[in-house]
Amino acid sequence: MSNLDSLDKIVSLAKSRGFIFQSSEIYGGLSAVYDYGPLGVELKRNIRNAWWKEMTQRHDNIVGVDAAIFMHPKVWEASGHVGGFNDPMIDDKQSKKRYRADMLIEQFIAKLNKDGKGEKAEEIQQLLDTSGTRKSLTEDLYDIIIENEIKSPDSGAFDWTEVRQFNLMFKTQFGATSSEEDGVYLRPETAQGIFVNYKNVLDTSRVSVPFGIAQTGKAFRNEVVARQFVFRMREFEQMEMQYFVEPGTDKNAYEEWLQKRLNWHKSIGIREENLRTAPHPQDKLAHYARAAADIQYKYPIGWQEVEGIHNRSDFDLTQHQEFSGKKLDYFDQKNQKRYIPYVIETSVGLDRLTLMVLCDAYREEEVDGDNRTVLKLDPRLAPVQVGVLPLIKKPELQELAYKIDKDLREDFSVQYDEAGSIGKRYRRLDEAGTPFCITVDFDGLEDSTVTIRHRDDMSQKRISVDKVADVIKTEMKNWKAN
Ligand code: ATP
User: What's the 349 CA to ligand 1 centre distance in angstroms?
Assistant: First the structure.
């Protein structure tokens, strides 16, 4: 079970503790764009590093690239984004709010079902499933909305514009002159930077099929419905790996990666009962996909996709071969044959992942009649791993605390804190998700010991000063989600 029934508490903790801020907040904010603060940047970096290690360091046949955000405009024609990366939108003329036409109809169907009007719901569902076959997609959706008098959810009005296709790519000018030809897009996904470098990697690295290319980086989508904190942003970060395989072996590779990726989410401390895989039905697949599944997390807003695993067939490389005129096939030297590899894609959003990690770690607990908020983060991901605290502000204690602080900084991210009562300091570090606190007191000055206090169960034990780093390392390794 999620510990939260809405995103509100996470949004407010994220802001008050410096994980995530609204972009340009002093100017009133920019919608669906967010900045990471001091704790957020560390958490996000640790998650990114954990992913990178899993996908590259642990595999001898996966290498990385870092492609530019700007790409040749032809890339997006070849990929299908210029022609097809659209959502059908409709505007409420009175409130000026914009809705995704298909989602509006789906909501209406859900309401009919709730009101016991299953037959009508089924009839409209049928029309929705076959939209695009009577007139055009936009006209069919418009007809459903008008004929069923579907009203605007915010104003209650029935005063709609036409349904229009709305491309999700941001376009900007490139270079000093501005002709139509100079227009470039901000990439809406990182995957294409991998496909256009596939030949470069093949020619310069010692890889052969099957092999993978991994990349992390920013992507941009002009999302219309963007009201769910960092779940759906207009500027976000993706972490993608494209795995190139021989046709015929793609089905196995797909199943294998789906399982591997699900296991990875568990390995970073996400509780099993909050994760599931959801295969896409065959008739709902994108035209190029042979199979696809979401890895979903039980967010406070419901079960939602955090990662997508797709069998993309040879669609992308074939398209780029055709549009660029460059050969992108692979020569298998052992079996003396040529083919265009199939691609298994694993694609996860770093911001959605960060939100998942925060939601899963969040707890409110009652302690001695008091409440504490604690983030039970995997210690490897925690933005501050160790708090170093002199019991009180006395030079003798400070001196030893400074020394411990300095030594630990070589291996861990450390925060020194001497402000306020010890209880208050523990609570502050609980909220930041700090798994260990090292407290220096007068007894310890006598026998060279300190107290290690554990975030999860608040237990404490005395350890020798020269063992602090070792103890933390061992306990970090043995940590289990709880
Ligand atoms: P959705 O259906 O939720 O819009 P999608 O199917 O369009 O997602 P993909 O194109 O498969 O998503 O992108 C891969 C991953 O990138 C998603 O699983 C998600 O984690 C992340 N992602 C996609 N769009 C956004 C966004 N607007 N904000 C944050 N993360 C995103």
Answer: 6
Ligand 1 centre distance from Cα of residue 118 (Å) = 31
Distances (CA, A) of 194 to 216, 257, 458: 10, 18, 46
Topology classification of domain 384-478: Rossmann fold (3.40.50)
In the chain, ranges of CATH 3.40.50.800 domains = 384-478
Pocket of ligand 1 (CB under 6 A): 189, 221, 223, 232-233, 236, 238, 305-308, 347-349, 351-352
Q: What is the pLDDT of residues 415-461, one digit of tens each?
A: 999 999 999 999 999 999 999 999 999 999 999 999 999 999 999 99
Atom of ligand 1 at shortest distance to CA of 226? 27
CB-CB contact of 79 with 141 (8 Å): no
- Say if residue 107's pLDDT is above 50: yes
Determine what percent of the chain is predicted with pLDDT higher than 90: 84
The confidence score (pLDDT) of residue 472 equals 98
Q: Which of 352, 354, 355 to mutate to test the pocket of ligand 1 (most atoms within 8 A of CB)?
A: 352
Q: What does the block give as tokens for 177?
A: 């002159």
Whole-Å CA distances, 146 to 49, 139, 412: 50, 10, 60
CATH 3.30.930.10 applies to domain 7-73+185-359: yes
**Assigned token pair, 461:** 């034990």
Q: Please give the distance, rounded to the nearest whole angstrom, from the Cα atom of residue 28 to the centre of ligand 1.
A: 26
Domain boundaries for CATH 3.30.930.10 within the chain? 7-73+185-359
Reported pTM: 0.89
Tell me the pLDDT of the chain averaged across its residues: 94
CATH 3.40.50.720 matches 86-167: no
